[in-house]
């Protein structure tokens, strides 16, 4: 089970790191489109976008199980393992806010936001609190 989660997590991390390279799009008319079609499309005003809805905040456990586990379950690259009191005892005194800043900015081998750029500060804080609670 742990090996499957680790493999899945590492694959997810690879996808996250490689995804930006795949999203680059060439500019210019699409294949098969006539030049007049491209000009018409550029001059047509776009329909107004609906107002952005606030995204639901994920729980700390859900964030952990979605991304953090891939390193913190096994201790990859020195990541403190979930529930490892000795490893977390050095970090907990720094305070949750300091730990949250470490996640937001990245630390050591951990990329900013643990590689999951869609996480907001509340979700990161919830994940940090979840991991700290498991180490107490």
Q: How big a fraction of the residues is strand? A: under 5%
**Quaternary:** single chain
Pairing-aware structural class of the strands and helices? mainly alpha
Number of strands: 0
Structure description:
This protein is mainly α and 136 residues long. The chain is elongated. The protein has helices at residues 2-22, 35-43, 60-72, 85-89, 96-105, 121-134. It has a domain at 60-134: Cytochrome c-like domain (Cytochrome Bc1 Complex, Chain D, domain 2, Orthogonal Bundle). The chain is built from 6 helices and no strands.
In short:
By secondary structure, the protein is an all-alpha fold.
Topology of this structure?
Blueprint: H1 2-22, H2 35-43, H3 60-72, H4 85-89, H5 96-105, H6 121-134
């Amino acid at each position: 089970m742990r090996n499957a989660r680790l493999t899945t997590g590492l694959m997810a991390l690879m996808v996250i790191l490689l995804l930006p390279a795949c999203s680059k799009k060439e500019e210019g008319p699409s294949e098969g489109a006539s030049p007049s079609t491209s000009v018409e499309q550029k001059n047509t005003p776009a329909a107004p976008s609906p107002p952005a809805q606030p995204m639901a905040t994920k729980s700390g456990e859900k964030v952990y199980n979605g991304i953090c586990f891939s390193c913190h379950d096994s201790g990859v690259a020195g990541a403190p393992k979930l529930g490892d009191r000795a490893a977390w005892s050095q970090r907990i005194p720094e305070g949750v806010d300091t730990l949250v800043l470490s996640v937001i900015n990245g630390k050591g081998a951990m990329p900013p936001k643990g590689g999951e750029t869609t996480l907001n500060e509340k979700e990161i804080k919830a994940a940090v609190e979840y991991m700290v609670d498991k180490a107490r």
